[in-house]
Design a protein that fits this description.
This protein has nine helices and eleven strands. By secondary structure, the chain is an alpha/beta fold. The protein starts with 8 loop residues before the first strand and ends with a helix. Helix content is 38%, strand content 16%. The protein has an eleven-stranded mixed beta sheet, sandwiched between helices.
Length: 304
């Protein structure tokens, strides 16, 4: 990790009952970032840190409200031009709901504060050159619906991100089919023929380099072989149709390395892929690897 960089990131300390505080402390002590480049939002952790950082404290009397307010403050710092990226420690959706905040995750909260018609949150998971974008996020499987407009809009957004933030001149994209075996030409489902292929053909006409719908099991088998053997990925990003289609293989392959990344908003947001881990909270055994990777990626992407 470089010793200094231009700009400032914020780190929210996450769920009060989870491992957020612990992994934040461990990650910052490992990275040893300059004091002027980090602001901590939530709890003051400086007594445990080798470097003392600016801290904005939030009332801890209500866990869900605490989590919500940390994101609200971080977003306000983005709007004021004071930070270039947000790193979030894990939060419990149940804690948010119990406090009256009916959001399906931190991504949706940040969308409210940092998004508009032109800036929409997209959820991408990144581990080196392995990138997976979710076409739909936190939905029950029965509610997953794809349209040509949704596919086209999200593909154009990820294509722009890869060009502008990752420096990839002509991104090579792979689209996961919704149904097993890409629908077997309508035998196992019609979404590929009726929705996905027409969207792909329209995108290809605009110059976007994207595959026709591919069977997800075969696609991720190739991804896994390359990742395990340290080979360059064939595709710059894979677009998964729904949450578990993309995240089960990615987390199985690289759980400690993969970073949950929100793109498309006024600032980059990163987060470790782990949850609150209530079962080990307070025991001092939480692995900070994911938080380290999240902070490093926030610095890398937030500067572009």
């Amino acid at each position: 990790m470089q010793n200094s960089f231009k700009g400032k990131i914020s780190i929210t300390t996450g769920d009060l009952k989870g491992i957020g505080e612990e992994i934040t402390i461990k990650a910052l002590n490992l990275l040893n970032l300059p004091a002027e480049n980090v602001v901590i939002i939530g709890k003051n952790l400086n007594q445990y840190l080798s470097v003392h950082y600016e801290t904005i404290e939030v009332d801890p009397s209500d866990n869900g409200r605490f989590c919500y307010e940390t994101l609200k403050i971080a977003s306000s710092l983005v709007d004021m031009g004071k930070i270039s990226a947000i790193v979030t420690a894990p939060v419990s959706k149940e804690a948010l709901f119990k406090s009256g905040y009916k959001y399906s995750g931190q991504t949706e909260i940040l969308q409210e504060f940092l998004g508009d018609d032109a800036s929409k949150a997209e959820m991408m998971f990144i581990a080196g050159d392995l990138r997976v974008l979710l076409l739909t996020r936190h939905l029950a499987l029965k509610d997953v619906k794809l349209s040509e407009d949704i596919i086209i809009d999200k593909v154009l957004r990820v294509n722009k991100f890869l060009i502008e933030k990752c420096g990839i001149k002509t991104p090579n994209l792979a689209l996961c089919a919704l149904n097993p075996h890409a629908g077997e030409n309508g035998i196992l489902g019609n979404e590929e023929n009726e929705t996905m292929i027409p969207a792909v053909l329209k995108l290809q006409k605009t110059g976007v380099n994207i595959s026709l719908p591919l069977s997800a099991d075969g696609l991720f088998a190739g991804v896994g072989e390359k990742y395990i053997n340290g080979k360059k990925q064939q595709y710059d990003c894979i677009l998964a149709s729904y949450h578990d289609q993309g995240l089960c293989p990615v987390k199985a392959l690289c759980f400690k390395k993969v970073v949950n990344t929100t793109i498309g908003l006024k600032a980059i947001r990163t987060s470790p892929s782990s949850g609150t881990a209530y079962d080990i909270a307070g025991k001092g055994i939480a692995d900070p690897s994911g938080m380290v990777e999240a902070i490093k990626l926030a610095i890398e992407l937030g500067l572009k």
